[in-house]
Amino acid sequence: YQGQTPQTFRAKKLKDLYYSLSDEEKGILTDASKIFVMKGEKVHLVQGEVFNIKITYPYDLRVAESLIRNGEMDK
Predict the structure, then answer these.
(1) pLDDT band at 27 (very low <50, low <70, confident <90, very high)
(2) Are 17 and 39 in contact, with CB atoms under 8 Å apart?
(3) Please, what's the b/e burial string for 34-55 (b: 16 or more CB within 10 A of its CB; e: otherwise)?
(4) Is the pTM of this model over 0.85?
(5) Pick from 39, 45, 4, 3: which is nearest to 18 by CA?
(6) What is the DSSP letter of 31?
(7) Best exposed site among 25, 34, 41, 45 by fewest CB in 10 Å?
């Protein structure tokens, strides 16, 4: 699977699990859901969208504009 945002969690549960991690475990975190996985908690997956891209850098914006311009978002 591919991780996408947004991810949702119960804030207290996320906080409690995070504080229960060792410094070593915290050092290998890649996203919030990994906290749940590392602690043996259930993570529910939902259908995502391939065009749900994160726009962080100017290049990302150009990619998104190109997808829209070429009608890729309508498929």
Answers:
(1) very high
(2) yes
(3) ebbebeeeeeeeeeeeeeeeee
(4) no
(5) 39
(6) S
(7) 45
